[in-house]
Amino acid sequence: KSGVSVELTSLGHHLARLPVAPRLGKILVLSTVFRCVEPCLTIAASLSERSVFSASYEHRAAMQQAKASLGAKDRSDHIASVNAFDRWTEIATRDGSAAARDYAHKYWLSEPTLRAITGLREQYRRLLASAGLITNITESSMADGEI
């Protein structure tokens, strides 16, 4: 009431249409701008769940080594999570659930968390489509949204 007018930025308008936490919304919206939707769906979903990497205390060193081999050696847990998820999905599709389970065991991955991430990725994909930020929710290369 002080006469100050406040308006949302373009990003703010898009975030207002997504029923997710602002930090997740920013990842999702900006993924369409920078055309990296697929890995960012995984990152956003990973931030909403427990870590995909899971080991008891006595196996932490082995888990950290597995994580490093998937990208964490570059100081990025997000890249390691994306690589782990992508490879697990690829193996499950190509070789079946038993092979995917073996891969998860070898790299200290939590299959319940990976399955939860799969579901969240699809929810986030549908949100982006309903907000008009991506055009086709079935294509894997749908980073063609325009803001």
Automatic annotation (TrEMBL):
Transmembrane segments: none annotated. InterPro entries: Helicase-assoc_dom. GO terms for molecular function: helicase activity; RNA binding. Residues 2-82 form the Helicase-associated domain. It comes from the Eukaryota. PANTHER family: ATP-DEPENDENT RNA HELICASE (PTHR18934), ATP-DEPENDENT RNA HELICASE DHX57-RELATED (PTHR18934:SF145). This is Helicase-associated domain-containing protein. It comes from Octactis speculum.
